[in-house]
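User: Fold this, then the next.

Assistant: Folding the first:
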Amino acid sequence: MARYTDSVCKLCRREGEKLYLKGARCFSPKCAFEKRGFAPGQHGKTRQGRTERESDYARQLRAKQRARRVYGIMERQFRRYFSIALNQRGVTGTNLLQTLELRLDNVVFRMGLAENRSQARQLVNHGHFKLNGRRADIPSMILQPGDTITVSETAKTRTFFKELPDISEKRNCAAWLDRDVKSLSGRVIRLPERAEIDGSLNEQLIVEYYSR
């Protein structure tokens, strides 16, 4: 399975804004974006502050790349999600964002059981979660309303999960999810509404990009 292995801080710098890919570190002075807020590469600093007009294609590409990087998805899989959203009823852009939000790794993150999506993906890959009572180790699984997620009994004996209830209590849980911190479990109540999804994402530009 292809995955991004370079520094994720470069992704924030390329987009020109914080994507909060490292969790708490992004809020600390150690954040690379605070030190080097210009785009990475040889000419990144020299282009800082330029006011060149972006073409429509450039804006569409940036919107698509931003969404991919926020959710940690490669291009081929992201295009497949768009095809799924295109074949569903309703607004294609909203369908796409709902599909991305319902990924298993993202739901684990939204429940506050992981600091960021990268950590959530790793925990799922290691088989620490159960979906509807069965072991789930595929981060890209798409959940449906009514699905329940629980931490496996074996995982609860590990130090990380023993300390997790106190940590998760301080983290917000999405309104479309129900979470029980003490039992380290949660449930998808309903589909997320557009207002409950990251407002910096521009789904209309993404639809325009793939509709060229």
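Now the next one, as you asked:
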Amino acid sequence: MTENSTPQGKETWSFPKEFWLANFMELCERAAYYGFFIVLTLYLTDVVGFSDIETGYIAGIFFAGLYFLPPFVGIIGDKIGFKNGLIIAFALLTIGYFFLGIYTGKLAVIFFLIIAMIGGSFIKPLITGTVSKTTDEVNRARGYSLFYWIVNIGAFTGKTFVPWIRQGLGLEYVSLFSAGMTLLAMFFAIFFFRPLNETKSTKSFDDVFTALKRIFTAPRLIILTLIVTGFWMIQHQLYASMPKYVIRLLGESAKPEWLANVNPLVVVIFVVLITQLMKKTKAVSSMAVGMFLMPFSALAMAMSTSLESFTGPQVSIIGDFWLHPLTVMMILGIAIQGLAECFISPRFLEYFSKQAPKGEEGLYLGFSHLHSFISAIVGFIFSGYLIDAYVPDPSTLPAGITAVEKAAVYANAHYIWYYFLAIGMISAVALLIFKYVTDRNDKRLEAKSAN
């Protein structure tokens, strides 16, 4: 019986020590990641001094790198071993986060963001690989469900603590919190995580590039990836647009980090239920439901001014406490995004894996986040221009501007979300066209093979 086997093939919640260590380290890393990167655009503008447009480019490239690099650094991780890979990853993350809080010059910040990006790109293949190697066919589903929950708990925890750090100590201290979390994870990687019985991978960088080339020459995969990019462009606005939008309209006391937590909360509550309800539905059909939900998410975010015209500056929630109309509509819009994600993300991965040649599913799935790579670049850069146009940095406004004049400058701030509503509608319609064409082609092939 192997180390990670369960006795007599019975499903159990008992896993090897390395499984729990990997999940604890993932919790620390996710708390660090989401804690800092929910305020990344604020940090780049308010602390470092980049303009909103420059911030869009820098943050977009950074996020895109995190989604594109894992298949390549995964090859390195396989060659040097999981333990060494984890130590290097957490060391790079700790260095990157720590010095982002110490040195805030523009060139230094770009350099340490690159360090953090490289470290972060190691984590996903190493941690998910550890979960895979410490589970077997019997308990793997439970293992990954635990992993998924811990990822979301880490994301939720990081964003929950950040407002107190940002408002109490300052934005630059958020990265020191993240450095502390990854340093803790590195400590456990060094002193408690032992090397696994690893089978050295025979995959090379050439194999990765070959898989990437095949994806780009597979019409269905690349077209569907581009369509789903529209969904993720809207989803990325939780980090690209929402923090600045909320703080500049509601003031420094606002907590966009807590608003962003609505997304993982909804996903954790509903993803299993929705996946079960839709399991007999074709993957593209399930994704279509989510794609048509996304425009309503953007619409809800844009409707705060309409709500305020009816309720005034505060909305009573069950008569016990009050929220600003913008906060109410943000919560609703982000909740809709979470529901849409439940319909889209699991089924997209399912569809992507089925299009891969047999034996190359792992390499193909390494690029299953190409949509996030594209949407990060386009979405963040687009956001930078929209923020600059509709919710400009208060420090760039004329000196001595009155409250009435400032309100006039921000009067059309909600127009930002109409752009993403349009992107969502175009993507949803494109997915319906994609479904119609592929279903028709599949029927023709079936009829031809029957004859």
